Amino acid sequence: MTAESTVATPAGQQPPSRDSGSVLGPRGLGAGRRAPAGRGARRPRRVFGACLGIVDGGAALLGALVVPAPHRYPLVFALLALGVIGLNRRASLYDTSVVPGALDELPAVCGRIAVGWAAVVALSPLRSLPTAVLVVAVAVHGAAACAGRAAVHGGRRRVVRRRPCPALVVGPVAAARRVAAALLRQPGCGVRPVGVIADDVEVLGDIDDEPGLPVLTTAQDARRALIQNGVEAVLVVGAATRVEKAAVLRGLAAYGCVLWELDADSPWYGLGGRREGAGHLAGFSRRLLWPRSGRRRGSAGKRALDVVLSGSLLVLAGPVLLVCAVVLRVMDGPGVVFRQERIGKDGRPFTMLKLRTHRPASAHEAATRWSVANEQDMSRFCHFLRRTSLDELLQLWNVFRGDMSLVGPRPERPYFVAKFSQAHPGYPARHRMRTGMTGLAQIHGLRGDTSIEDRCRYDNAYIDNWSLWQDVCILLRTAAQFVRPTGS
Fold first, then answer.
1. Is the pTM here over 0.70, yes or no?
2. Bias regions of kind Polar residues — which residues (predicted)?
3. Cα 418 off chain centre by
């Protein structure tokens, strides 16, 4: 689909009302401005997760330096580092949705380091080393890992105090507002409620005039609040709410939110054994209800394919892009690169790049007008770029940096994401995976001004049946169709 070509919105489809529900504006933004959802917290969260992996790898290197030089086998210690990182990953020790204290994870970290060393000593020439040397090496490895992870967690804790995670509170209005007010009184907890989802209408009439967070009573309001505020967490007040709001919670989880259940009335005092993700948030008992969709099996292979192919194609296509840019600059003036906000994985916005083939009359028009393949006022060269899809090649940079994938659902603008999510129940589920330059829908002819319902069905079928081989097949079929004059 081409972004900047504009015609009137399809007949019979009204834009979503802006007055159907209010949402709390992000801090520091003036009225009418939209917050870049998720950029305030999700990107640093990924950085801190990577830092934890680097710390664990560096700690393994320090432990290896204790071993006498004749016994420093690089391959053995590389396997040790990878093994410990793998064990930590399985134990969710790189999950940065919660920030543990320095001592909280010490037993888990040191235990896995000990297991890693025991395995490499048993299976390598290190078993000939004196026991004292091995003990010192394990101790240095453990101390370095714990100290480094404590420093990373400390940095993460400072970040969440400055930029707390936006959250929605789901439950009866009175209880949800009480929980939200308590969290707002504790900014150090790292969570900032931005709205309450409830439908107990008989209560709403009594508290509508009370100051506080907006009450969202429809799925459309919830989606708008989620996208506009970059919501990352959903706090479910009470077990009854978990059942009553199951459909709404599934939809929020499809956007990549982490779901936590809070007990606002009867705190959990540790009875019944330890529960997964159990803990507290501003004193409220909390347990993990539905984690973020996380990395799908094989996603590391998909990302590797994206990086290798997009990097190679950027090098090969560089001269072509340069020539196209020069021609566009000479024929149509400055502004060769077209930038537009699109919605990607888990509802996160990103800036998509293309070669400009049409100038929208205004930013509002570019964001809210549907696109077609052939605009009457485009030059012949711009028509050529559209027909050959050369204007899309700049998206290889989006793929290389991780905003997109080579294969996946095509990204859409925030206005149309809200609109199509309301009209098509399965549309939000497309955001379970990174958006792509091409996809199953595109190779079946669903490009440009075609059925959104059909695209949605193909996109979800692709995600549900994903495999690396399927990506390869779609890329090969896309390459075969690349020169067809269909546009995008």
1. no
2. 1-20
3. 17
